[in-house]
Design a protein that fits this description.
The structure holds 2 protein chains of 2 kinds.
Chain A: E1 4-6, E2 11-14, E3 19-25, E4 33-38, E5 45-50, E6 55-57, E7 60-65, E8 70-75, E9 84-90, E10 95-96, E11 100-105
Parallel strand pairs in A: 2-11
Antiparallel strand pairs in A: 1-3, 3-8, 4-5, 4-9, 6-7, 7-8, 9-10, 9-11
Chain B: E1 4-7, E2 10-13, E3 19-25, E4 32-38, E5 45-51, E6 57-58, E7 67-73, E8 76-81, E9 90-96, E10 106-107, E11 111-115
The chains are: A mainly beta, B mainly beta.
Chain lengths: ~110, ~120
C-alpha cells in the first residue's frame, strides 16, 4: 500500500459547485498534514495545513479523520481559478499523494 | 515568508553531459532539503533527502551515482545529473523546511531539464 493515496481524478465541475477530495495515509503515527496546490508547470504552493479539529479558510475546509486515516479538502463555490492539481502531504516522510486534478468550467 | 530559490529554471543539454541544479534557502536554515522529479502529467516523486554535512538518503530505484547530491551548507543543496540522457528530461524541484519547524515545506521554482 502506498504511503499516501489520492484519487487522481480528473474532477470536472461547473463554476459554483462544491467539490471534495480525500487523501488516505498508511502511517498511523503521522502528525502533520497539508494540502498543496500545483498549477501546470509550476512548483507546489501551500494551500492550507490540516488541524485535528478541522479548519476553514474562506471557501476551503480541511478535515482530518484519524480513525480512518484520511484527510479531506472541501472547496465551496468553485471558481475558474481553482483549476489546479491538489496534492496532500503527510509530513513524516515528505511523500506526496499523486494529486487530484480539478478543472472548474464556466 | 520563507523563500527557496532554485537555479537554473530551465536547461537544455546534450546527451552525456552533466547538469548541476542549485537549491538555496534564502532566509532560513535548512538542515534537510528534498529533491523531487516530476514527469509530465505525473505526480511529484521524492528522489532523495539531502542532509547537511552528511550523505543524502536516496529513494528506492534512484541511482545515487547518477544523481549526485551535495548539501555542504545549511542554505545550499545541489543536485547533479551526471551523464544525462533524454530519459532524464524532467521537472526537478527542491524543497526545504526551516530547521526549527516541522511544518510547511517551501519549494523552489523548479528546474526544467531537457536532454537532447
Amino acid at each position: 500500500r502506498k504511503e499516501v493515496e489520492q484519487d487522481p481524478g480528473p474532477f470536472n465541475v461547473p463554476e459554483g459547485a462544491t467539490v471534495a477530495f480525500n487523501c488516505t495515509y498508511s502511517n498511523s503515527a503521522s502528525q502533520s498534514f497539508f494540502w498543496y496546490r500545483q498549477d501546470c508547470r509550476k512548483e507546489p504552493k501551500l494551500l492550507m495545513s490540516v488541524y485535528s479539529s478541522g479548519n476553514e479558510d474562506g471557501r476551503f475546509t480541511a478535515q482530518l479523520n484519524r480513525a480512518s486515516q484520511y484527510i479531506s479538502l472541501l472547496i465551496r463555490d468553485s471558481k475558474l481559478s481553482d483549476s489546479a492539481t491538489y496534492l496532500c502531504v503527510v509530513n513524516n516522510d515528505m511523500r506526496f499523494g499523486a494529486g487530484t486534478r480539478l478543472t472548474v468550467k464556466p | 515568508g520563507a523563500v527557496v530559490s532554485q537555479h537554473p529554471s530551465w536547461v537544455i543539454c546534450k546527451s552525456g553531459t552533466s547538469v548541476k541544479i542549485e537549491c538555496r534557502s534564502l532566509d532560513f536554515q535548512a538542515t534537510t532539503m528534498f529533491w523531487y522529479r516530476q514527469f509530465p502529467k505525473q505526480s511529484l516523486m521524492l528522489m532523495a533527502t539531502s542532509n547537511e554535512g552528511s550523505k543524502a538518503t536516496y529513494e528506492q530505484g534512484v541511482e545515487k551515482d547518477k544523481f549526485l547530491i551535495n548539501h555542504a551548507s545549511l542554505t545550499l543543496s545541489t543536485l547533479t545529473v551526471t551523464s544525462a540522457h533524454p530519459e532524464d528530461s524532467s521537472f526537478y524541484i527542491c524543497s526545504a523546511r526551516d530547521s526549527w519547524s516541522t511544518g510547511e515545506l517551501f519549494f523552489g521554482e523548479g528546474s526544467r531539464l531537457t536532454v537532447l
